[in-house]
Amino acid sequence: MRIQSVTIRQLNSIQKVEHDRVFKLIGVLEYVSTKQSSWLFTLRDSSGTANLIKNVIVTRRIESQEERIKRETNEFLEIVSDIPEPKYDYGKYHRIFGNYNPERKMFEVDSIQLVDDFNEITTHGLECIWQHIQNNKSK
Fold first, then answer.
1. H or E element: which one contains 133?
2. Domain residue ranges of the chain, discontinuous segments joined by +
3. What angle do CA 128, 123, 2 make, to 5 degrees?
4. What is the assigned CATH class of domain 2-56+89-127?
5. pLDDT over 90 percentage in the chain
6. H/E stretch holding 78
């Protein structure tokens, strides 16, 4: 598995992706919304804005027949939210790893973390420049 640092503009220009490729983005998280089984993110970096998606696995406890009868007779109902509410700091830089599907123009998030050292933002920019030079050498 190779991790490639990219900007949003570089990501949008990708035509074909190798299967073992994971992309790293760093940008300001602007918006998060929830859908049926996913979170939708809007991320902005110095090159543009992108919409990202993170699929959320919802697990529900399967109750036994005895538990179901007890719940029905005692009218005991535990309310479980289908999708947990995402808790991220809007307006702050986040490091995002994920896969990109160029056909659908969709970035699927694997992990998202808050950037606590601003040197990482500069380093990420330099990695993106280096990666761009390496990709254009072969052409």
1. helix 119-137
2. 2-56+89-127
3. 55
4. mainly beta
5. 32
6. none
